[in-house]
Please model this.
Amino acid sequence: MDKIFSTRIAEDLARQLDAYGKKRGLSKKRLVEAALRSYFKQRRAKPAHEILERTFGAWKRDESPEKTCARAREDFKGD
Model:
């Protein structure tokens, strides 16, 4: 069963949707459904370790841990 879905989109996207649909002989409904299905499928396909890929460089440093700790101690020591 279909459900009515209404939303506002940018005018340029609406024009692209119309043009692409006419060129391919597809309805707006079919294009939007396909796009949403593809988006959700892609999101589900992300591996659990994605967070590691997104933060991989966060702990890389140009100095040794000892030097970082020493610098931090100096910063917190105050005047």
Remarks:
- The mean pLDDT is 86.
- The two ends are 71 Å apart (CA to CA).
